[in-house]
Amino acid sequence: MKKLHGVVTPIVTPLTENDKIDVESLCALCEHLIGKGIDCLYPGGTTGEMMYLTLEERKLIAETVVKQAAGRVPVFIQVGAWNQKDTIELAKHAVSIGADGIGIVTPTFFKLSDDALLAFYQAVAGSVPSDFPAYLYAIPQNAVNDITPALAARIADACANVVGIKYSFPDMSRIQQLMKIRNGTFSVLCGPDDLFEVTVCAGGDGTVSGNSQCIPEHYAALNKVLKSGEYALATKIQRRTNLLNELLCEYDNIAHYKAVLQADGIIRTKKMRKPMVELSDAETVRVMEQLKALRYHEVLC
Question: Taking the model in full, what pTM does it have?
Fold first, then answer.
């Protein structure tokens, strides 16, 4: 089954001025990222404002990205939703449109036991073909529920098509523990951008990075030198990338992403799905001035 490697980009959901999905901008964003060397597109995730979208909107987004990618890069759809029924509906839809796989965030808001989480993942993974790859998605700081290494191992034992995990909490010890599952063959991707280099060096497969859609050149360059074993250069690129990411994650990273992508002419608006709030024009100008001062599209080695 297909596993993910390198830079996986959880893309934003472009919106029109009247709060509809901006399909044209979404297609332009996909083309931009594929052209810049991103390894996989991952719509419907946290960066895509997933829980504030309807099922119909999420299906439209998934269909648009799969069609636009046209097999040039893998497309994994994040299908986790507010309840198990909707999650399964989105998972089956991902299969039907020709996606390469799915990611499944833990259920949110209500605290669940490990047994309940195991049953949830068994139900979702079992709703799709046995050879259709799925990734666990743990973001405990947002979702309340976490996936411990012990629970991840139980899920992997019970669900053959669960091939890995995206772990989005900055805990390198936990990330390394997850790498031991299935005798070291379980795919592990980090969510924190500053852990990309160390995750790969420790044996992980890459990162799922929202920041990478704004500065894809840096992530593609870092991924390239990591593959070639140029670790001193990788450290240099990682540190510069961290500096740029500090500006992109000042307080609302998704709003920053949309503001930068609009300023770069890739998407048409910086609108956020309410109650989330977009950057003001003054905030956008300030961020763009800071990024331009750092020559944010140049990979300085």
Answer: 0.96
